[in-house]
Amino acid sequence: MSMRTRRSVRAGQYLALLCYLVFLAFPFLWLISTAFKPAPELGSLHPTWIPHHPTLDNFRAAFDEQPLLQAAANSLTAAVSAGIIAVVIATPMAYVMARHRSRLSAAATGWVVVSQAFPFVLLIIPLFLVLKYLHLINTLWGLIMVYVVWSLPFALWMLVGYVRAVPPELEEAAAVDGASRLRTLVSVTAPLLAPGIVATALFAFITAWNEFFFALVLLKTPEKQTLPVVLTHFLGAEGASDLGPLAAAAFLATLPSLVLFAFIQRRITGGMLAGAVKS
Question: 235 φ, ψ to 5°?
Answer without folding.
Answer: -90, 130
